[in-house]
Automatic annotation (TrEMBL):
Lineage: Bacteria, Bacillati, Actinomycetota, Actinomycetes, Kitasatosporales
Family matches, as Pfam families: MmgE_PrpD_C, MmgE_PrpD_N
Protein source organism: Streptomyces ochraceiscleroticus
Name of protein: MmgE/PrpD family protein
Family according to the record: Belongs to the PrpD family.
Record-linked InterPro entries: MmgE/PrpD_sf (IPR036148), MmgE/PrpD_sf_1 (IPR042183), MmgE/PrpD_sf_2 (IPR042188), MmgE_PrpD (IPR005656), MmgE_PrpD_C (IPR045337), MmgE_PrpD_N (IPR045336)
SUPFAM superfamilies the record matches: 2-methylcitrate dehydratase PrpD
Domain MmgE/PrpD C-terminal: 225-374
Domain MmgE/PrpD N-terminal as annotated: residue spans: 53-196
Length: 405
């Protein structure tokens, strides 16, 4: 028995319960919504020549508004939903791929992410192979083979954060999974032990005892702001006190477990994409903007003189200690004013986290922010309908689609 065979067997045998199906429906709607929000993004024409899964995954991730699995530090749906849609799958295929991605992420562990790997891509390519493979009707041994065939594409590094490369490498992972599944379906061979060997070489621990349920252990976090998940908590904490911030602000101190801000690479952001990975800019947009939405993460917004002044007044106190997820401990903020007064705020769980799930009103507001037509487009959305919607919104320019391959 190998990890690949154990995961493949779990994916093949899993049968969804109502909670699983509710999660799958929410993941489908959320992923399609944030992709539609990027219809006018400069990356759209760049991705147009790519196959369906790659194109859709990249566009669903470019705004950094897609869901996150906290325990594995992976954006599960942005990889698996496009892989399923590109191969004609449904909720069962999504849950198989999402469940394998969560479990692979657990095998990789926090140290894998903390060492600089982009776990969405490393866990994502084999998981996308499962999602596509289940959609294509592969059996357990073919699914294990597909995972092994996806291993060469199981890469991605955090140096991509703040550039187009971050979303593109997510697209490459989704596409690699679809390609691997189709190759396995056609009869290509591979040794499933390749997945176990790869896991060990990138710092993970292969496992053959696979938790049976739920499909996605821990659930999924839904983002309320279009930026890195490590910024969700400080933004939410500051928004709780921003109306009380009256006076000349002389400094802001953010105290946080060091590991929980690991992906925030840009202390002096100069572009909108860099601003999505910047703790100082999280402070600036939370204080300056009524809602830190898409308009807050443009080049112009990041370079506002008042934003740059605030960025220069932020001190981040990164407390050492063991970290296992981006929501370990809590974030604490102190705002100091020229008159000697100070404001304090602290938060452990931001809105949208699995333990603090978004309300129906919050989800509707998020979808509306993705475009005035998005709530209507998502009403009663099915997996087949979502695929057609994505093909219409993001047409291919190569003359070939995944559906025709």
């Amino acid at each position: 028995m190998t990890a690949a065979r154990a995961l493949a067997q779990w994916a093949h045998d899993h049968r969804a319960d109502p909670d699983d199906l509710a999660l799958a429906g929410r993941a489908l709607a959320d992923t399609v919504a944030v992709a539609l929000a990027a219809r006018a993004h400069p990356l759209q024409p760049i991705t147009a020549p790519l196959p369906d899964a790659a194109r859709w995954a990249a566009m669903a991730h470019v705004l950094d508004f897609d869901d996150l699995h906290i325990e594995s530090t992976t954006h599960i749906s942005v990889v698996t939903v496009p892989a399923v849609l590109a191969t004609g799958g449904d909720a069962r295929a999504y849950l198989a791929g999402a469940g394998v991605m969560a479990r692979l992420g657990a095998m990789l562990g926090w140290d894998h992410y903390a060492s600089g790997w982009h776990a969405t891509c490393t866990a994502g390519a084999p998981a996308a192979a499962i999602a596509a493979g289940v959609a294509l009707g592969l059996g357990p041994e073919q699914l294990a083979t597909a995972m092994a065939l996806a291993v060469p594409a199981a890469g991605g590094v955090q140096e991509a954060f703040g550039t187009h490369s971050k979303s593109l490498q997510v697209g490459f992972a989704a596409d690699a999974g679809v390609r691997a599944a189709r190759l396995a379906q056609a009869g290509a061979t591979a040794d499933p032990r390749a997945l176990d060997a790869w896991l060990t070489r990138v710092g993970g621990t292969p496992a053959t005892e696979i938790p049976a349920a739920p499909a996605v252990p821990g659930g999924l976090a839904i983002k309320m702001y279009p930026c890195c998940y490590a910024m969700q908590r400080p933004i939410a904490a500051l928004r709780e006190i921003r109306d009380k911030a009256d006076g000349e602000l002389t400094g802001v101190t953010v105290t946080t477990p060091a590991g929980t801000v690991h992906p925030l690479l840009h202390d002096r952001p100069a572009t909108g994409l860099e601003g999505k990975f910047s703790m100082p800019y999280a402070v600036a947009t939370a204080l300056l903007d009524a809602y830190p939405g898409f308009d807050s993460f443009t080049d112009e917004a990041v370079n506002r003189p008042e934003a740059q002044r605030l960025i220069g007044r932020v001190t981040v106190d990164r407390r050492p200690g063991e970290t296992t997820t981006l929501l370990d401990g809590e974030v604490a903020l102190r705002l100091d004013f020229a008159d000697g007064t100070a404001l304090h705020s602290a938060l452990a769980l931001p809105p949208g986290s699995p333990q603090r799930p978004p309300t129906d009103d919050e989800l509707r507001a998020k979808f509306a922010a993705c475009g005035p037509d998005v709530p209507d487009l998502l009403a009663g959305i099915t997996w087949e309908g979502a695929a057609e919607l994505m093909r219409t919104a993001f047409p291919a320019t190569t003359g070939r689609t995944d559906k025709e391959s």
